[in-house]
Amino acid sequence: MSITKFTAENTALLLIDHQVGTMKLIKNIPLEEAQKKTLALAKMAKALKIPVVLTSSQEYAAQGPLMPELAAILPGAFEKRIKREGIVNCWEHKAFRDAVLATGKKNLIMAGVTTDVCLVFPAISAVEEGFNVQAVMDASGSPFNLSEDLSQKRMANAGVVLTATNTLMAEIAQDWARPEGGELLGILFTDVLPSMV
Fold first, then answer.
1. Across the strands, what pairs with 53?
2. Is the pTM of this model over 0.90?
3. pLDDT digits (tens, 9 = 90+) for 106-159
4. Which residue in the list 23, 118, 123, 188 is annotated as catalytic?
5. Catalytic residue flag (residue 118)
6. Alpha-carbon distance 173 to 119, whole Å?
7. Separation between Cα atoms, residue 37 and residue 41, nearest integer Å
8. Which residues of the chain have pLDDT under 70?
9. What is the pLDDT of residue 1?
10. Mean pLDDT, the chain, as a whole number?
11. How far apart are CA 63 and CA 172, in angstroms?
12. Contact 24, 53 (CB under 8 A)
């Protein structure tokens, strides 16, 4: 598989099932960190005008609504979010896949509220269909270390590139001296990196 450099121009961001109920299942990393990194990705996409596809599953049930902060950062994508009725692999949901194809981007940044259920299957499905996928592991998490580790190995073996928010943002920025790089640097120091004070 050829890996194309991820840039603001050739990339889309897919945030999968970051719902207030399901977020509580994340136990392998601090929940607050996963929330902060998810919102940092949303802010990055807004700053760089990267297309975003949001999806949720059964918002009326225990999973709950998407994080309300996403509506504030990405009101358009939030309004157009793909509401699934129960299909686990969102890639197999026609409306979601159609929305991703409509972005026209072959490079996909993905984060799923649970790595072991929400992220692993669509990430692998997209790679099998010829997309370049980077899975952001600190904006995703699992209830158990074992299921997290196995899902990460399964994705990596299938050709998904595993990454972290700060690494991904540095790659997209390319040059901190560019106006876009300066914007991302601000998001990094505000929302991603530990305080230097």
1. 14
2. yes
3. 999 999 999 999 999 999 999 999 999 999 999 999 999 999 999 999 999 999
4. 118
5. yes
6. 24
7. 6
8. 1-3, 195-197
9. 45
10. 94
11. 31
12. no
Cβ neighbours around 24 below 10 Å, total: 14
Domain 11-191: CATH superfamily, name plus number: Isochorismatase-like (3.40.50.850)
As a whole-number percent, the residues of the chain with pLDDT over 90 amount to: 84
Residue 21, both tokens: 């109920």
Q: What was the pLDDT predicted at 196?
A: 54
Give the C-alpha separation, 123 to 133, whole Å. Answer: 7
By the 8 A CB rule, do 17 and 63 touch? yes
**CB-based contacts of 2, cutoff 8 Å, min separation 6:** 132
Q: SS in 3 state form for the chain?
A: CCCCCCCCCCEEEEEECCECCHHHHCCCCCHHHHHHHHHHHHHHHHHHCCCEEEEEECCCCCCCCECHHHHHHCHHHHHCCEEECCCCCHHHCHHHHHHHHHHCCCEEEEEECEHHHHHHHHHHHHHHCCCEEEEEHHHCECCCHHHHHHHHHHHHHHCCEEECHHHHHHHHHCCCCCHHHHHHHHHHHHHHCCCCC
139/67 Cα distance (integer angstroms):
13
Number of residues that make up the chain: 197
Q: CA dist 71 to 74, 93, 123, 161, 190, Å?
A: 5, 22, 24, 28, 19
Q: Are 192 and 36 in contact (CB under 8 A)?
A: yes
